[in-house]
Amino acid sequence: MDFEISAEHRQLRTTLREFFEAEAPIEEVARFDRDEEFNSELYRKAAGLGLCGLAFGEEYGGSAADQISICIAVEEVARASAALAYAWLPTATFCAKGIARFGTEEQKKEILPRIADGTVRMAMGLSEPEAGSDLTHLTTRAERDGDDFVINGQKVFTTGADTADHIFAFVRTDPEATASRGLSVLLVPRDSEGLVVRPLRKLAGQATHTCEVFLNDVRVPKENLVGELGRGSAIIFSLMDAERIYVGAEGTGLGQGALDMALKYAQERVQFGKPIIEHQAVAHMLADMAMNVQTARLLTWQAAWRLDRGLDCTMEASMAKVYGSEAGTRCAAHGMQILGGYSYMVEYGMERYWRETKLYEIAGGTNQIMRNMIAKQLTRRAR
User: Fold this and answer.
1) Same-domain status, 193 and 269
2) What is the pLDDT of residue 179?
3) Nearest 10 degrees: CA dihedral of 162, 83, 120, 125?
4) What is the C-alpha to C-alpha distance for residues 218 and 105, in angstroms, rounded to an integer?
5) What would the pLDDT profile of 115-150 be if each residue is shown by its tens digit?
6) For 101, phi and psi rounded to 5 degrees?
7) What is the DSSP secondary-structure string of 258-283?
């Protein structure tokens, strides 16, 4: 058993940390969020570092990175900017991996190199107004009409849909089939006639809009079907373990960012004649933050290690997701307390971590659903 990451992993973290501290300082991230303007230049530069091709092979412009590398990248992106994470992660992991694993050769050659170089982004069209955690009861319909599919329905919480090139849409293609057998995945170009995108106001990461998407007789060619007709559930659920691991890494990255900021402040802030880190109440909060981050990281990396080796990791991924997201929330709350009144000031950045962390207890399956899954896995493994 080896708990030491490789020199390559350490170099990846150093490179990304230095890049984001230079290219995404607190005031710049705050400005883009305030103006609700997507930072396309930052995304392009991140793609130039290879961040957008981590999940697929060199033959399509990627690097086929191992899961620990992806988790390190996710931590650093989340630490830097939720808005960047919201745009990058669905494109570079979930959607790219879905196309690499299930797409046609034409789809791979056409789309994956452009994802890798940052010129194509995707939004995940999964949730609907009446279907969130239970994706098997989606109602958005896609019916065959000659060489096309005609789509009608509505998606919600489709983050980045207004600036993405495609929506990776989960749709019902056979209303008579069982819930798990009648679903398919279609790539829907954002500029399709009949597709309307409406941004929603939200708490954090405002530079990447979360949107409602309305599909009214939207036509897409049959070539835009990803995988087999009626086998969309297999695609989505095959990607869920990885997504939950990455959500755990996002929470870890936010917790690390809050810890770094609070530690620096506590070393510099003097009250009652000494730096506040020398006051036991503050020191204990920092110690708790450090323990939360380290535990979250170890859980996440263990799940990633199992995923890399093709081992069952549904329970470990669920644990990583729950603990990582809640650790991020706890760290941000402690960070707010340590910075005191300054934690409310946008220029310090802690309030952004505090706003950003809560999403990860909800996204990728609520933590209550994840706890159900962990309990079921405990029962299954005990047999």
Assistant:
1) no
2) 67
3) -50
4) 24
5) 999 999 999 999 999 988 787 788 999 999 999 999
6) -90, -35
7) HHHHHHHHHHH-EETTEEGGGSHHHH
> 259: which 2 tokens?
């810890």
Contacts of 278 (CB under 8 A, 6+ apart): none
| pTM metric for this prediction | 0.96
φ and ψ of 221, to 5 deg: -65, 155
**Residue ending a domain, choose from 96, 120, 144:** 120
Percent of the chain whose pLDDT exceeds 70: 99
**16 close to 72: Cβ distance less than 8 angstroms:** yes
pLDDT in tens, 321-375: 999 999 999 999 999 999 999 999 999 999 999 999 999 999 999 999 999 999 9
Query: Which tokens hold the place of 23?
Result: 């290219």
Q: Supply the CATH number for residue 361's domain.
A: 1.20.140.10
Taking phi over 0 as left and psi of -120 to 50 as alpha, with beta for the rest, 145 belongs to beta
Chain CA centroid to CA 320, Å: 14
pLDDT digits (tens, 9 = 90+) for 208-246: 999 999 999 999 999 999 999 999 999 999 999 999 999
376: domain range?
233-382
Rounding to the nearest 10 degrees, give the CA dihedral for residues 276, 279, 280, 281. Answer: -60
For 356, the token pair is 């950003």
